[in-house]
Q: What sequence folds into this?
Protein backbone atom coordinates (compact mmCIF):
# COMPACT_ATOMS: atom_id res chain seq x y z
CA UNK A 1 0.00 0.00 0.00
CA UNK A 2 2.74 2.40 0.93
CA UNK A 3 4.27 2.25 -2.54
CA UNK A 4 0.92 3.27 -4.01
CA UNK A 5 0.56 6.13 -1.57
CA UNK A 6 4.09 7.26 -2.30
CA UNK A 7 3.44 7.25 -6.04
CA UNK A 8 0.27 9.29 -5.67
CA UNK A 9 1.85 11.69 -3.20
CA UNK A 10 4.41 12.60 -5.85
CA UNK A 11 1.59 13.85 -8.06
CA UNK A 12 0.03 16.08 -5.42
CA UNK A 13 0.43 19.81 -5.78
CA UNK A 14 1.51 21.75 -2.73
CA UNK A 15 0.51 25.21 -3.94
CA UNK A 16 -3.24 24.82 -3.93
CA UNK A 17 -4.92 27.77 -2.21
CA UNK A 18 -7.58 27.24 0.40
CA UNK A 19 -11.02 27.52 -1.16
CA UNK A 20 -14.46 26.30 -0.23
CA UNK A 21 -17.73 25.44 -1.85
CA UNK A 22 -19.61 28.63 -2.63
CA UNK A 23 -16.54 30.66 -3.49
CA UNK A 24 -16.28 32.46 -6.79
CA UNK A 25 -13.17 31.15 -8.49
CA UNK A 26 -10.91 32.09 -11.36
CA UNK A 27 -9.48 28.83 -12.67
CA UNK A 28 -6.48 29.27 -14.94
CA UNK A 29 -6.40 26.36 -17.39
CA UNK A 30 -3.43 25.48 -19.58
CA UNK A 31 -4.47 24.94 -23.17
CA UNK A 32 -2.11 23.51 -25.76
CA UNK A 33 -2.80 24.57 -29.33
CA UNK A 34 -0.36 22.86 -31.63
CA UNK A 35 3.02 24.02 -30.38
CA UNK A 36 1.84 26.97 -28.35
CA UNK A 37 0.57 26.91 -24.82
CA UNK A 38 -1.71 29.56 -23.44
CA UNK A 39 -3.77 30.09 -20.34
CA UNK A 40 -7.52 30.43 -20.34
CA UNK A 41 -9.47 31.64 -17.34
CA UNK A 42 -12.73 29.97 -16.35
CA UNK A 43 -14.72 32.06 -13.89
CA UNK A 44 -17.59 30.73 -11.85
CA UNK A 45 -18.94 29.48 -8.55
CA UNK A 46 -17.51 26.36 -6.98
CA UNK A 47 -20.53 24.14 -6.40
CA UNK A 48 -18.80 21.07 -5.03
CA UNK A 49 -15.60 19.28 -4.13
CA UNK A 50 -15.38 15.55 -4.45
CA UNK A 51 -12.88 12.79 -3.68
CA UNK A 52 -9.54 12.88 -1.91
CA UNK A 53 -5.86 12.69 -2.73
CA UNK A 54 -4.97 12.82 -6.43
CA UNK A 55 -8.55 11.98 -7.34
CA UNK A 56 -10.00 15.14 -5.80
CA UNK A 57 -12.06 17.19 -8.23
CA UNK A 58 -14.05 20.40 -7.98
CA UNK A 59 -16.95 21.63 -10.05
CA UNK A 60 -17.26 25.22 -11.23
CA UNK A 61 -20.55 26.55 -12.57
CA UNK A 62 -21.22 29.70 -14.50
CA UNK A 63 -23.83 31.06 -16.90
CA UNK A 64 -22.57 31.58 -20.45
CA UNK A 65 -24.95 33.28 -22.87
CA UNK A 66 -27.95 32.31 -20.77
CA UNK A 67 -26.88 28.67 -20.63
CA UNK A 68 -25.50 27.02 -17.49
CA UNK A 69 -22.00 25.60 -17.97
CA UNK A 70 -20.28 23.33 -15.48
CA UNK A 71 -16.69 22.19 -15.64
CA UNK A 72 -15.15 19.52 -13.44
CA UNK A 73 -11.44 19.99 -12.81
CA UNK A 74 -9.08 17.47 -11.24
CA UNK A 75 -7.61 19.53 -8.41
CA UNK A 76 -4.07 18.22 -8.83
CA UNK A 77 -3.99 18.20 -12.61
CA UNK A 78 -1.02 20.03 -14.15
CA UNK A 79 -3.51 21.49 -16.62
CA UNK A 80 -4.97 23.61 -13.81
CA UNK A 81 -2.28 26.26 -13.64
CA UNK A 82 -3.67 28.22 -10.70
CA UNK A 83 -6.84 28.93 -8.78
CA UNK A 84 -7.74 32.26 -7.23
CA UNK A 85 -10.70 33.09 -5.02
CA UNK A 86 -12.32 36.25 -6.29
CA UNK A 87 -15.18 36.32 -3.76
CA UNK A 88 -15.58 33.98 -0.80
CA UNK A 89 -19.12 32.67 -0.43
CA UNK A 90 -21.17 31.79 2.63
CA UNK A 91 -23.12 28.58 2.20
CA UNK A 92 -24.65 25.87 4.39
CA UNK A 93 -24.33 22.96 1.97
CA UNK A 94 -21.41 20.84 0.74
CA UNK A 95 -22.87 20.64 -2.76
CA UNK A 96 -24.70 23.58 -4.32
CA UNK A 97 -26.68 21.55 -6.83
CA UNK A 98 -29.78 23.66 -6.06
CA UNK A 99 -28.21 26.44 -8.11
CA UNK A 100 -28.92 24.38 -11.22
CA UNK A 101 -32.64 25.01 -10.83
CA UNK A 102 -32.27 28.73 -10.40
CA UNK A 103 -31.85 31.58 -12.84
CA UNK A 104 -30.89 35.22 -12.61
CA UNK A 105 -30.63 36.89 -9.25
CA UNK A 106 -31.49 33.71 -7.34
CA UNK A 107 -28.17 32.15 -8.31
CA UNK A 108 -26.25 34.56 -6.12
CA UNK A 109 -24.39 33.18 -3.14
CA UNK A 110 -24.02 35.27 0.03
CA UNK A 111 -20.60 36.74 0.55
CA UNK A 112 -18.51 35.56 3.46
CA UNK A 113 -16.81 38.35 5.38
CA UNK A 114 -13.24 37.48 6.20
CA UNK A 115 -12.35 38.62 9.67
CA UNK B 1 20.13 -10.28 -19.69
CA UNK B 2 17.40 -11.64 -17.46
CA UNK B 3 14.06 -11.01 -19.13
CA UNK B 4 11.94 -10.45 -16.05
CA UNK B 5 11.24 -10.87 -12.36
CA UNK B 6 8.59 -12.28 -10.08
CA UNK B 7 6.46 -9.95 -8.03
CA UNK B 8 3.19 -9.04 -6.51
CA UNK B 9 0.26 -6.91 -7.59
CA UNK B 10 -0.17 -4.11 -5.07
CA UNK B 11 -3.14 -2.24 -6.46
CA UNK B 12 -4.19 0.51 -8.80
CA UNK B 13 -3.59 4.24 -8.66
CA UNK B 14 -3.90 7.36 -10.75
CA UNK B 15 -1.01 9.59 -11.70
CA UNK B 16 -0.60 12.68 -13.83
CA UNK B 17 1.92 12.90 -16.63
CA UNK B 18 3.88 16.07 -17.29
CA UNK B 19 1.50 17.22 -19.99
CA UNK B 20 -1.45 16.87 -17.64
CA UNK B 21 -2.85 13.54 -18.72
CA UNK B 22 -4.33 11.34 -16.03
CA UNK B 23 -3.01 7.78 -16.36
CA UNK B 24 -4.52 4.76 -14.60
CA UNK B 25 -1.65 2.59 -13.39
CA UNK B 26 -1.17 -0.70 -11.59
CA UNK B 27 1.59 -0.69 -9.00
CA UNK B 28 3.60 -3.91 -8.90
CA UNK B 29 6.28 -5.16 -6.59
CA UNK B 30 9.08 -6.32 -8.89
CA UNK B 31 11.37 -8.39 -6.75
CA UNK B 32 13.72 -8.53 -4.98
CA UNK B 33 14.01 -12.12 -6.16
CA UNK B 34 16.71 -14.68 -5.44
CA UNK B 35 18.23 -16.88 -8.14
CA UNK B 36 17.54 -20.47 -7.05
CA UNK B 37 18.60 -22.40 -10.13
CA UNK B 38 20.12 -21.78 -13.55
CA UNK B 39 18.74 -23.76 -16.48
CA UNK B 40 21.32 -24.37 -19.19
CA UNK B 41 21.20 -25.70 -22.73
CA UNK B 42 23.56 -28.57 -21.91
CA UNK B 43 21.55 -29.84 -18.99
CA UNK B 44 17.97 -28.74 -19.53
CA UNK B 45 17.81 -27.98 -23.23
CA UNK B 46 16.93 -24.32 -22.73
CA UNK B 47 18.23 -21.27 -20.95
CA UNK B 48 16.34 -19.73 -18.08
CA UNK B 49 16.71 -18.59 -14.51
CA UNK B 50 14.61 -19.90 -11.67
CA UNK B 51 13.70 -17.17 -9.22
CA UNK B 52 12.12 -17.18 -5.79
CA UNK B 53 10.07 -14.33 -4.37
CA UNK B 54 9.18 -13.57 -0.74
CA UNK B 55 10.56 -15.60 2.15
CA UNK B 56 8.50 -18.28 3.79
CA UNK B 57 8.84 -19.38 7.40
CA UNK B 58 11.26 -22.28 7.63
CA UNK B 59 8.84 -24.57 9.47
CA UNK B 60 6.29 -24.13 6.68
CA UNK B 61 8.68 -25.50 4.03
CA UNK B 62 9.00 -29.24 3.44
CA UNK B 63 12.33 -31.01 3.14
CA UNK B 64 12.63 -31.03 -0.68
CA UNK B 65 11.93 -27.28 -0.72
CA UNK B 66 14.44 -26.59 2.02
CA UNK B 67 17.09 -28.67 0.27
CA UNK B 68 16.48 -26.91 -3.05
CA UNK B 69 16.92 -23.38 -1.69
CA UNK B 70 19.90 -24.47 0.40
CA UNK B 71 21.97 -24.78 -2.79
CA UNK B 72 21.45 -21.07 -3.35
CA UNK B 73 22.00 -20.32 0.33
CA UNK B 74 18.53 -18.81 0.54
CA UNK B 75 15.41 -18.99 2.69
CA UNK B 76 12.41 -21.03 1.47
CA UNK B 77 10.29 -19.01 -0.93
CA UNK B 78 6.56 -18.43 -1.22
CA UNK B 79 6.54 -18.05 -4.99
CA UNK B 80 8.95 -19.73 -7.41
CA UNK B 81 9.03 -19.31 -11.16
CA UNK B 82 11.23 -19.18 -14.22
CA UNK B 83 12.09 -16.28 -16.49
CA UNK B 84 14.00 -16.46 -19.78
CA UNK B 85 17.67 -15.62 -19.83
CA UNK B 86 19.90 -15.24 -22.88
CA UNK B 87 22.97 -16.63 -21.10
CA UNK B 88 25.15 -13.65 -21.91
CA UNK B 89 25.72 -12.12 -18.50
CA UNK B 90 26.86 -14.08 -15.49
CA UNK B 91 24.22 -15.28 -13.06
CA UNK B 92 25.08 -16.79 -9.72
CA UNK B 93 22.97 -18.83 -7.37
CA UNK B 94 21.69 -16.69 -4.53
CA UNK B 95 22.02 -13.48 -6.52
CA UNK B 96 19.37 -10.87 -5.84
CA UNK B 97 17.41 -9.48 -8.77
CA UNK B 98 15.03 -6.53 -8.70
CA UNK B 99 13.63 -3.72 -10.80
CA UNK B 100 17.01 -3.02 -12.42
CA UNK B 101 16.25 -5.62 -15.12
CA UNK B 102 13.66 -3.20 -16.53
CA UNK B 103 16.12 -0.38 -17.06
CA UNK B 104 15.54 1.00 -20.54
CA UNK B 105 12.58 -1.30 -21.12
CA UNK B 106 9.39 0.33 -22.35
CA UNK B 107 6.86 -2.48 -22.55
CA UNK B 108 6.24 -5.52 -20.34
CA UNK B 109 3.98 -8.56 -20.25
CA UNK B 110 2.45 -9.37 -16.88
CA UNK B 111 1.24 -12.91 -16.15
CA UNK B 112 -1.00 -13.65 -13.21
CA UNK B 113 -3.93 -15.70 -12.03
CA UNK B 114 -7.24 -14.01 -12.77
CA UNK B 115 -9.86 -13.34 -10.12
CA UNK B 116 -12.26 -16.18 -9.41
CA UNK B 117 -15.87 -15.59 -10.44
CA UNK B 118 -17.30 -19.00 -9.51
CA UNK B 119 -19.96 -20.63 -11.65
CA UNK B 120 -21.14 -17.94 -14.02
CA UNK B 121 -23.70 -17.73 -16.76
CA UNK B 122 -23.08 -17.05 -20.44
CA UNK B 123 -23.84 -13.33 -20.25
CA UNK B 124 -20.94 -12.75 -17.89
CA UNK B 125 -18.68 -15.54 -19.08
CA UNK B 126 -18.97 -15.21 -22.86
CA UNK B 127 -20.60 -11.80 -23.25
CA UNK B 128 -23.82 -13.24 -24.71
CA UNK B 129 -26.60 -10.71 -25.11
CA UNK B 130 -29.19 -12.72 -23.19
CA UNK B 131 -32.83 -12.79 -24.16
CA UNK B 132 -35.34 -9.97 -24.61
CA UNK B 133 -36.43 -8.14 -21.50
CA UNK B 134 -40.09 -7.68 -22.39
CA UNK B 135 -42.83 -8.94 -24.77
CA UNK B 136 -43.94 -11.77 -22.55
CA UNK B 137 -40.57 -13.31 -21.80
CA UNK B 138 -40.74 -15.60 -18.82
CA UNK B 139 -37.43 -17.20 -18.07
CA UNK B 140 -34.98 -16.32 -20.82
CA UNK B 141 -33.57 -12.95 -19.80
CA UNK B 142 -30.03 -14.26 -19.37
CA UNK B 143 -30.30 -17.63 -21.05
CA UNK B 144 -27.94 -18.85 -23.82
CA UNK B 145 -30.72 -19.65 -26.33
CA UNK B 146 -30.41 -22.56 -28.72
CA UNK B 147 -27.31 -24.74 -28.49
CA UNK B 148 -27.82 -26.70 -31.69
CA UNK B 149 -30.20 -28.36 -34.16
CA UNK B 150 -32.37 -31.42 -33.81
CA UNK B 151 -32.21 -34.32 -36.29
CA UNK B 152 -28.83 -33.25 -37.64
CA UNK B 153 -26.38 -33.13 -35.90
CA UNK B 154 -28.52 -34.37 -33.02
CA UNK B 155 -25.73 -33.55 -30.61
CA UNK B 156 -24.05 -30.49 -29.15
CA UNK B 157 -20.79 -29.54 -30.81
CA UNK B 158 -17.64 -29.62 -28.75
CA UNK B 159 -16.50 -26.26 -27.48
CA UNK B 160 -20.04 -24.83 -27.37
CA UNK B 161 -19.89 -21.82 -25.08
CA UNK B 162 -21.93 -22.53 -22.00
CA UNK B 163 -22.20 -21.53 -18.34
CA UNK B 164 -19.42 -22.76 -16.10
CA UNK B 165 -16.55 -21.85 -13.86
CA UNK B 166 -14.86 -18.55 -14.68
CA UNK B 167 -11.59 -17.10 -13.52
CA UNK B 168 -8.64 -18.50 -11.53
CA UNK B 169 -6.74 -19.16 -14.72
CA UNK B 170 -3.39 -18.00 -15.99
CA UNK B 171 -3.74 -14.77 -17.94
CA UNK B 172 -1.23 -12.46 -19.51
CA UNK B 173 -1.69 -8.75 -20.03
CA UNK B 174 0.61 -7.92 -22.92
CA UNK B 175 2.50 -4.81 -23.94
CA UNK B 176 1.81 -2.71 -20.88
CA UNK B 177 3.71 0.57 -20.86
CA UNK B 178 6.05 1.13 -17.93
CA UNK B 179 5.12 4.52 -16.52
CA UNK B 180 7.46 4.64 -13.58
CA UNK B 181 10.22 2.60 -11.94
CA UNK B 182 11.04 3.14 -8.29
CA UNK B 183 14.24 1.31 -7.25
CA UNK B 184 13.81 2.48 -3.66
CA UNK B 185 10.65 0.49 -2.97
CA UNK B 186 11.33 -2.05 -5.75
CA UNK B 187 8.11 -1.21 -7.50
CA UNK B 188 7.11 -0.45 -11.05
CA UNK B 189 3.93 1.20 -12.30
CA UNK B 190 2.43 -0.02 -15.57
CA UNK B 191 -0.39 1.58 -17.48
CA UNK B 192 -3.65 -0.34 -17.32
CA UNK B 193 -4.94 -3.34 -15.45
CA UNK B 194 -3.21 -6.60 -14.56
CA UNK B 195 -4.88 -9.99 -13.98
CA UNK B 196 -5.56 -11.09 -10.40
CA UNK B 197 -6.52 -9.56 -7.10
CA UNK B 198 -4.39 -7.19 -5.07
CA UNK B 199 -1.59 -9.09 -3.36
CA UNK B 200 -1.52 -11.91 -5.89
CA UNK B 201 1.75 -13.20 -7.30
CA UNK B 202 2.66 -12.26 -10.83
CA UNK B 203 5.48 -12.66 -13.34
CA UNK B 204 6.67 -9.52 -15.09
CA UNK B 205 8.79 -9.87 -18.21
CA UNK B 206 9.91 -7.88 -21.20
CA UNK B 207 7.22 -7.72 -23.86
CA UNK B 208 7.51 -10.75 -26.09
CA UNK B 209 5.49 -9.90 -29.16
CA UNK B 210 4.60 -6.62 -30.69
CA UNK B 211 0.93 -5.84 -30.66
CA UNK B 212 -0.59 -5.03 -34.03
CA UNK B 213 -0.58 -1.32 -34.60
CA UNK B 214 1.75 -0.60 -31.70
CA UNK B 215 5.23 0.40 -32.72
CA UNK B 216 7.84 -0.32 -30.13
CA UNK B 217 11.34 -1.57 -29.88
CA UNK B 218 12.26 -3.14 -26.63
CA UNK B 219 15.66 -4.66 -27.01
A:
Amino acid sequence: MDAIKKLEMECLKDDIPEFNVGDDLDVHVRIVEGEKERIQVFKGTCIGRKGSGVRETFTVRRIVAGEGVERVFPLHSPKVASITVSRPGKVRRAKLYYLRDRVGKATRVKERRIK
Amino acid sequence: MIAGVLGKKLGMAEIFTEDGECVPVTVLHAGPCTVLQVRSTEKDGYQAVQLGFEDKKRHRANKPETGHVKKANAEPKKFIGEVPWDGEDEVELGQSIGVEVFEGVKYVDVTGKSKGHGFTGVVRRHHFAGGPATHGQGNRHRSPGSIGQSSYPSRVFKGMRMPGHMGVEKNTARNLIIVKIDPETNTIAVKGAVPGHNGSYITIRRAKAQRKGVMHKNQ
